[in-house]
Amino acid sequence: MQLDLKKLLQEYKKGKISAEEIEKKIRQEKILFVKRHTVIDLERDYRCGIPEVILGEGKKDEQIIDITKDLLEKRKKVIITRTRKNLVKKLKKTFSDKYNIDFSDIAKICVIKDKKLKEKKEKIIVGVITAGTSDIPVAEEARVVIEELGFKTIKAYDVGVAGLHRLLDPLKEMIEKGVKIFIVVAGREGTLPGLVAGMVDGIVIGVPVSTGYGYGGRGEAALKTMLQSCASIAVVNIDAGFVAGVLAVKIAKIVRDAEK
Known about the structure:
Layout: H1 5-13, H2 19-28, E1 31-34, E2 38-41, H3 44-48, E3 54-55, H4 61-72, E4 77-81, H5 85-95, E5 99-104, E6 109-114, E7 125-130, H6 136-148, E8 152-156, H7 165-176, E9 181-186, H8 192-197, E10 203-208, H9 220-227, E11 234-235, H10 241-259
Helix pairs in contact: 6-10
C-alpha cells in the first residue's frame, strides 16, 4: 500500500504516532529489495510524478514475477513494458485470482491491477499520431503508458506525408478537442513531427522509428530529420515510445496544475 504522508502527519499531530515510527515507515517505503536481483525505487512517483515501471526486456520470467509479486504488496498496480505473450500466461496463472491482467500485444505492455482499484482520467487529452501503419507499435506503447498514468488520448494512425490530406481532418478534430500535447511517431525520413508542429499551437514530441531501411535506415534518418527540424519540437530516442509517453504525462501534469 502506498504511504499516505498526510495521514501520518495528522496522526502525529494528534499524538497517535511518534516521529520515530514515521521515520521507520518512510524508510521502509524508499526502496524495495527483491531477492538478490532487483532494487525497486518506491519513491519515484513522489519525486518525479511517475511510478517505477518494470522493463520486461532483458529480464528472466522468474525475475519479473518476483518483482511483480513484491511490488503488488506495496502498490495496487504494476506496469510491465516490452514484455511477451508467454510471460503474460505465467503472470495470469500467478496473479489472476486477485488482479485484473491486461495485455496489449501490439504495445507489448502488460498492466496488472487490483480488482478493487478505481481510477479516474484527467481532462487533458494527448494526441498520438503516426506517419505509417508500421509505426503503430511504438505509438501504442506511448498511448497505453499515457492512459495508464491517468490521461486521455486521441489517436490518428497512418496519416504521413506520402498522403498529407489524410492528416487534415484528424488534426482538426484534435485541435477542436483542445489537444495541446502531440506525440508524432515516424520512421523513414521522419518529416511528420516538424510538419505537425508548424500547424498546431502546442508541444510536439517527435519519436523516430526504426522502420526505414538502406542508407539512413533503422530510424537514423528519421532521428536526424527531427533534430534538424525548423519547427521547435522535442525529440526522444529511436523507438522510445515509453519515454515519449512519460514526457507527455509530465507536461500534462504541469498544464493541469497551472490550470487549477
